[in-house]
Amino acid sequence: MIAISFLKHPLFLFSIIGSFLFLLDSWSVTDRQEINVTSAQQQRLATLWETQTGFTVTPEQLDSLIANWVEEEILYQEALRLGLDEQDSIVRRRLVQKLGFIAESESSESIETSTLQTFYRDNISNYTLPERYTFRQLYFRAEAEANNALLEVNGVEDTNDLGESSMLNSEYAYLSKLEINATFGAGFSDQITNIALDSWQGPFLSGFGFHLIQLIAVHREEITPFQSVQDQVFMDYERHQEQNARSDFIKDLTDKYAVTIEPK
After folding, report:
1. Best label site of 103, 104, 126, 246, fewest CB within 10 Å?
2. In terms of domains, do 45 and 94 share one?
3. Which domain holds residue 201?
4. What's the chain's Rg over C-alpha atoms?
5. Could you tell me if 177 and 141 lie in one domain?
6. Is residue 5 packed enough to be buried (19+ CB in 10 Å), middle (13-18) or exposed (0-12)?
7. Is the domain of 112 the same as that of 179?
8. DSSP tag of 167
């Protein structure tokens, strides 16, 4: 009876519970995740500091950088353990972006001039200036005013007084059809690029109002020499290689997954 009474004593029960919690804590301590700050990681922290500040890192500063990195790593590992990265669109996009950068970096290599020249020839349309136009214009809010001005404009040397003031220039040089439409509105280039040279014609309707146009010159397509665009070709080729590397990387990964799309 005494033994049973002792077992029911609160102090005995507390001691049992305390021992259990102590053992549980001991087991969890031995199961800790290890964080190893390698010499390479320390060098990366020092290099990053020197790159950002321009100064050589001191031992005290390096100790502080390491402490901050360890704190960040602990929080990162704990966040992963708790699954905080799951269903997080920002984390998802960042991881996808980072993996994309890794895939694209696989394409980095020294590029010979002959390779760039081949890429330039294969994509010559990207380095060809389109047909461009130089013209003068007079602006009017009302079509009737434009028609009245057209009756006298071809016999006038100084035509500036005939048009109304606007934010548009009186003359434009070397504009492509795309650039003309960007300035005057969609479809405007189709109205003015086939008219006769030198004589004023119109009125032509734009997004602003009505215009009289004097087409001064038509500049035909012109291929830009390789030497003039070599830097641009280099950047275009690098980007082309990065996109190919990324595409191949994704294809190889896709082959490792079985994708099932549930019906809607």
Report:
1. 126
2. no
3. 131-220
4. 37
5. yes
6. exposed
7. no
8. S
